[in-house]
Amino acid sequence: MVNRIIVIGGGASGMMAAIIARRKGSDVILLERNDRVGKKLLTTGNGRCNYTNLNLSINNYHGHNPSFAEEALSEFNVDKTLEFFESLGITPADEDNGKVYPLSFQASSMLDVLRFEMEFQGVQVVTDAFVFEITKKNNFTVKLKDGRLFHSDKVILATGGMAMPVSGSDGTGYSFSRSLGHTVRDTFPGLVQLKLEGNIFKQINGVKFIGRAGIYHKNRLLVDDSGDILFTDYGISGPPILQISRKAIELMNMGHEAELRISIISSKPKDQIKDYLIRRFKNLYMKNMDEALVGMINKKLIIPILKELSIDKNIKVSDISIEQIDCLAGLLTSWSFKIIGNKGWGQAQVTAGGVNTDEIHSNTMESKLVKGLYIIGELLDIDGDCGGFNLQWAWSSAYLAGMNASI
Ligand SMILES: Cc1cc2nc3c(=O)[nH]c(=O)nc-3n(C[C@H](O)[C@H](O)[C@H](O)COP(=O)(O)OP(=O)(O)OC[C@H]3O[C@@H](n4cnc5c(N)ncnc54)[C@H](O)[C@@H]3O)c2cc1C
After folding, report:
1. Could you tell me the CA-to-CA distances from 107 to 10, 12, 52, 110, 259 in Å, in that order?
2. How far away, in angstroms, is 160 Cα from ligand 1 center?
3. pLDDT tens digits for 88-138?
4. Are residues 171 and 208 in the same domain?
5. Statement to judge: residues 229 and 274 lie in one domain
6. Probe residue for ligand 1, chosen from 13, 40, 342 as the CB with the greatest number of ligand atoms within 8 Å
7. How many domains does the chain have?
8. For a substitution probing ligand 1, which of 159, 389, 393 has the most ligand atoms within 8 Å of its CB?
């Protein structure tokens, strides 16, 4: 008799698992609550889909036990991912830091080739299929909200996490996992913008610079990253901020304070900036302080910075003290802010936490508690850095589930 598999969730991991399982000869039904599959995939990489990363290492992954991901990531590794998508028509284009995109730079191409392949292989895709309940006696029964019932030998749960709930992933997978006996590690938004304390943000909203950002706790640097940073009306955004946000949120969830330090000028150390400011102020001795910084830092930042340092904007630069110049150089290279929150699930790119990986076989993605149940993708307690690592996890975990559910 043909092995029948129900894949729940038509996101990145669900589509991949369905294709692999179908190629192995299983009868595959994919159930997706939206009226079409892959809604989130279309938004990835700013609509360009950064689908893997050439510099991948296990250090790019987080969770209670990141090494859980190692087997899947080495079985269906970056090379195999590139090969798989190339065989479907995706020409890879690599950009900075190992990020790989389709050469079309269109996330829609990724979705198209996955849809074409599902159709070609004969995956039965059912949209507008909101799964409501999963039960298991001898086989699985999957019940939709509208009452329809589906039966199968195996279930691959690929409903994603909580990030960007408008795409369809709003945490229903955790309830299914719990109802089948699994535990779920606390979830929180990862790769998300940070809210900062202060009343300057309306004023500096939109200021963009290339700088460095670090999360500190009790004066100790925990994680940092550099690149394009953007002040917003609530605080701060940009790739380095998303990258380091997880650590800040983790700290705050434990009841600790998290401090953000940013360097507006990261190309030179503080001492060199100080020397430069001394020379600059000698040349511009006739100017007021607010005029003397024009051309060096974004104009919108000048008044807030001078206020922060309690330096009168009307003071002549010739009257400024060496101590004040020292403080200014210090702030330009390390401006400290208290983090007071984050932009939440609506803006987050990934979910930290999820189904406890201790309860899943790392070499197959099968549940240790429920035979025939496979759990994959963002639903598990594995999350990756920004840069193609989350989709790679979706592809790799899906590959193992698709292969092994078909045995
Ligand atoms: C804005 C944004 C940009 C991103 N950019 C990148 C990037 O460039 N590179 C990268 O690696 N990662 C990126 N990510 C992260 C990446 O998209 C996710 O980690 C990945 O899509 C997770 O795949 P998944 O299959 O586990 O879950 P999802 O893609 O979330 O898919 C889950 C699917 O299950 C369906 N579903 C949920 N509940 C039910 C139910 N009860 N019944 C039926 N169907 C259900 C949902 O509708 C959804 O289609 C980005 C995320 C966001 C939000």
Report:
1. 15, 11, 13, 5, 35
2. 5
3. 999 999 998 999 999 999 999 999 999 999 999 999 999 999 999 999 999
4. no
5. no
6. 40
7. 3
8. 159
Asked if 215 and 86 sit in the same domain, the reply is no
pLDDT tens track for 199-257: 999 999 999 999 999 999 999 999 999 999 999 999 999 999 999 999 999 999 999 99
The pair of structure tokens assigned to 241 is 């901020």
38 closest CA partner among 346, 401, 377, 352 = 377
CA of 252 to the centre of ligand 1 (A): 25
**Residue 72 CB contacts under 8 Å (≥ 6 apart), including other chains:** 362, 365, 393, 396, 397, 399, 400
Do 87 and 208 lie in a common domain?
A: no
Q: Is the CB of 158 under 6 A from ligand 1?
A: yes
Ligand 1 binding pocket includes 175 (Cβ within 6 Å): no
Spatial separation of the C-alpha atoms in residues 244 and 264, rounded to whole Å: 17
Is residue 160 within 6 Å of ligand 1 at its C-beta? Answer: yes
SS3 track for 39-64: CCHHHHHHHCCCCEECCCCHHHEECC
Task: Record the tokens describing residue 193, joined without a space.
Answer: 């913008």
> Could you tell me if 104 and 152 lie in one domain?
yes
CATH of the domain at 321: 1.10.8.260
